[in-house]
Amino acid sequence: MKLFYALIILITFQNCSFDNKTGIWKNEDKITNKEDDLFAEFKTLTSENESFNKIIQLNENLKLTKPVFQNNSDWKDIYFDNSNNLPNFKYNNLNQIVFKSKKITNHNINNFLLFEENNLITTDKKGNIIIFSIKDDKILNKFNFYKKKYKKIKKLLNIIVENNIIYVSDNLGYVYALDYKNNKILWAKDYKIPFRSNLKILNNKLIASNLNNILYFFNKKNGDTLKLIPTEETIIKNQFINNLSLNDKSLFFLNTYGSLYSIDIKTMKINWFVNLNQSIDMNASNLFSGSVIVSNKKDKIVVSSNQYTYIIDSTSGSIIYKKNFIPIVKPIIVNDYLFILTNNNLLISMDLNNGNILYSYNVNEKISKFLDIKKKKVLYKDFMLANNQIIIFLKNSYIVKFNLNGNIDEVNKLPTKINSQPMIINNSILYLDSRNKLSIVD
């Protein structure tokens, strides 16, 4: 009987083994379903709301316009710039590690990094703000704002940097400004209610939102409140984090109730708002989840709800297109094209001018065919555009490089295991690895 059970266990492990040819599937199955799907707590209400799941081939006669390259030396906003969109970065594409630091912190890091004047800026769950100089290969400053009574509380810091000043809001209700060159707090305010959004800077204003969906405009020089705008509050709090995006005329604010607001950046008055929560149960306790708002330089913004991706006229708030696919990571707008990775593993390109889907490919199938291996499910860390390639970062530290037409050019593994969100600085990829060491890959 013991021999029988042993054989069953052996067969089970053989059937569930990872691919041994490339290792690209390795460790993917160990990641929980919670990490796998940002929208796992939501269920489709009816069959007509089922997510888009079609394979569409690109028309052979269609040639996508290639964007210009951008050499980048700073990353001052966690989403790169005010629009939350990414350009076509210049990248050396050698996949060789050119720099590796000592351990920057012993504590769990917060996911996003900043970069200013050759300094990496990161934070950890203990509330430390760490400034690491690549030029000097050392930590220039490690600052902690918090007193001993907060020692056991996990700190979630929202950060943005401008002219050597790091602005911070946190999950304890504090907002403060740190001059990191002089290791000095310029001002600090306690608002008692946790802040829960990315930060934006606009001229003399610092913009943030709190847990109760109140939008704040602060004077960035002294922290005084210039204006606050209350919006719908939800009784039950979910994992969605309020999101802010800016264009030349307006601030866009998506709250946890599912309402998208446009606010005039000069008058700080509401232009329009629209609710994107498609639930039949429209009450204050209803859970909503959405995506990072991405805007282009013209007149469109892209935002997603639990079930749909919306293309919205940024001037009027009217919905131009509504598509039943949901991004798993932040979308990218390139010229007049939208590139999106969906929660059901599709890479989709869409024409923003007419709403037509140019192509839709299953990433898992593309990888398996390219490597000639058995298909399994990959899990995504991030994606961006570099050298006219769509670079998909996987959680197991592989990177898959698609051309703009949706075909794989190459698959590589990063020299070290990626732990933070990646950045492209001075033609190289920067990230913190699993040991909290900075890796720079050419």
Summarize this entry quickly.
With 442 residues, the chain is mostly beta strands. The protein has one domain: Methylamine Dehydrogenase, Chain H, CATH 2.130.10.
Q: Which homologous superfamily in CATH is the superfamily?
A: YVTN repeat-like/Quinoprotein amine dehydrogenase
Number of strands: 34
> Largest beta sheet, briefly?
6 strands, mixed
Number of domains: 1
Mean pLDDT: 88
Rg over alpha carbons = 22 Å
Helical residues, percent:
under 10%
Task: State the name of the first-level CATH class.
Answer: Mainly Beta
* Helical run tally: 3
CATH architecture grouping? 7 Propeller
Distance between the termini: 56 Å
- Describe the strand arrangement of the main beta sheet, using strand numbers: 1-2-28-29-30-31
Strand and helix layout:
Elements: H1 2-15, H2 33-36, E1 69-70, E2 88-89, E3 97-103, E4 114-116, E5 119-123, E6 128-133, E7 138-144, E8 157-162, E9 165-170, E10 174-179, E11 184-190, E12 200-202, E13 205-209, E14 214-219, E15 225-230, E16 243-246, E17 250-254, E18 259-264, E19 270-275, E20 294-295, E21 300-304, E22 309-313, E23 319-323, E24 332-334, E25 337-341, E26 346-351, E27 357-362, H3 363-371, E28 380-386, E29 389-394, E30 398-403, E31 408-413, E32 423-425, E33 428-432, E34 437-441
Parallel strand pairs: 1-2, 2-28
Antiparallel strand pairs: 3-34, 4-5, 5-6, 6-7, 8-9, 9-10, 10-11, 12-13, 13-14, 14-15, 16-17, 17-18, 18-19, 20-21, 21-22, 22-23, 24-25, 25-26, 26-27, 28-29, 29-30, 30-31, 32-33, 33-34
